[in-house]
Amino acid sequence: MARLHAQSRATYGRPRLLKALAAQGMKKSAERVRRRLIRHRLRPVYRRAWQTITHSAHRLPLAPNLLARRFDGWGPNQAWVADITYLATDEDWLYLAAILDLGSRRIVGWSMSERIDAKLMGTALRSAYWQRRPPRGLSVHGDRGVPYVSGAHRELAQGYGMPMSMSRRANAWDNAPMESFF
């Protein structure tokens, strides 16, 4: 039983182990398998639930879609795209905000946090700005999530002379280079 559990990379619990044992011709009762799992401290590893991280149903002001899916033909520091993804850890979730330069196709700024908020995206934007020192007029494109449309993020982008651009609602294709990065 321990061998089957290990072969499944610890994903088999009692129901699957019962089927695997039966396939090998070993008939065991569910109760017996349960007791052995407990005795040997074998527990299945469950996949974490998928988590929604962008909430675009808000009343905050939006920016126009300045990129309009034109992802090619940009020089370095002319247009940046941004997104946030989540990473499962042994303890909880971590959120990674990253900014990609469409001209160089490199990550120019990033930030990681246990919370998804405007500070996460703001830290990534500050990181990108201080590493690259782009000229005024560089466009920063993101989705419609609260971290992008918050007043703090908007003020930061305006202070750097960066017009904001946002995807249409529920349209990942409008931010395809960044969506495909993760």
- Mean pLDDT rating: 81
Write out the CATH superfamily name of the largest domain.
Ribonuclease H-like superfamily/Ribonuclease H
**Helix count from the secondary structure assignment:** 7
| Strand percentage | 15-25%
> What fraction, in percent, of the residue positions are helical?
25-40%
Give a quick account of the main beta sheet: strands, pairing sense, barrel closure.
5 strands, mixed
CATH topology group of the largest domain? Nucleotidyltransferase, domain 5
Please tell me what the overall shape is: elongated
Architecture per CATH nomenclature, i.e. the level-2 architecture of the largest domain: 2-Layer Sandwich
The helix/strand series, from N terminus to C terminus, equals HHHEEEHEHHEH
Name of the CATH class of the largest domain: Alpha Beta
Radius of gyration: 23 Å
Distance between the termini: 37 Å
Any overview of this molecule?
33% of the residues lie in helices and 19% in strands. It contains 7 helices and 5 strands, in the order αααβββαβααβα. A 5-stranded mixed beta sheet has the order 3-2-1-4-5. Strand 1 and strand 2 form a beta hairpin. Helix 4 runs parallel beside helix 6. The chain starts with a helix and ends with a helix. The mean pLDDT is 81.
Pick out its properties.
19% strand; Transposase_IS3/IS150/IS904; 5 strands; alpha/beta; Nucleotidyltransferase, domain 5; 5-stranded mixed beta sheet; nucleic acid binding; plasmid; RNaseH-like_sf; Integrase catalytic domain-containing protein; elongated; 182 residues; 2 domains
